[in-house]
Amino acid sequence: MRHNLILPPLTRREALCRMGSGFGVVGLASVLGNSLSEAATAKNLTSPFEPREPHFPAKAKHVIFLFLNGGLSQVDTFDPKPMLQKFHGQAYPGETIETEQKTGNLMKSPFSSKKYGQSGIEISEIFPRVAERIDDVCVVRSCAQS
């Protein structure tokens, strides 16, 4: 008997949470990797979780993954919203959804941003050192499910 299990699509928040957990485990494995494999070797044990050789050589030298749950807003860092400047202090346009919490008026970012590098990526004034090296950085501003 064959079961076709169709899972509901992930929300962006759920996807980022799962990815964040995955990157944490990768970091933990790199910290504990040698001590765990040495302990297994001392006891002549082999584990299915033991690190293996990759299928192809890695190109990336470093990965910095920032998952800032409760951290800075994207509007205040790498994703400015120019229309918030225009509509600052005004009520959110459109009808209010019954299930939505009561919120205040629209707010612009307290920080200014400008374009940097050959790529012209807008960066907030709170990251001047990052702005100097922005052409070496990959900025992902959206997530989509396929």
How many domains, as an integer? 2
- Element order, helices and strands? HHEEH
> Multimeric state of these chains?
single chain
Major sheet size, sense and barrel closure: 2 strands, antiparallel
Contiguous uncertain segments of 5+ residues: none
How many helices? The count is 3
Within the largest sheet, what's the order of strands?
1-2
What can you tell me about this protein's structure?
With 146 residues, this protein is mainly alpha-helical. The protein folds into 2 domains: 12-51 and 62-71, no CATH class; 73-146, no CATH class. The chain is 28% helix and 5% strand. A two-stranded antiparallel ribbon has the order 1-2. A hairpin with a 4-residue loop joins strand 1 and strand 2 (121-124). The protein is extended. The chain starts with 11 loop residues before the first helix and ends in a 14-residue tail after the last helix.
Pick out its properties.
146 residues, mainly alpha, two-stranded antiparallel sheet
Quick summary of this structure?
The chain is mainly alpha-helical.
Secondary structure topology:
Layout: H1 12-42, H2 82-86, E1 113-116, E2 121-124, H3 128-132
Antiparallel strand pairs: 1-2
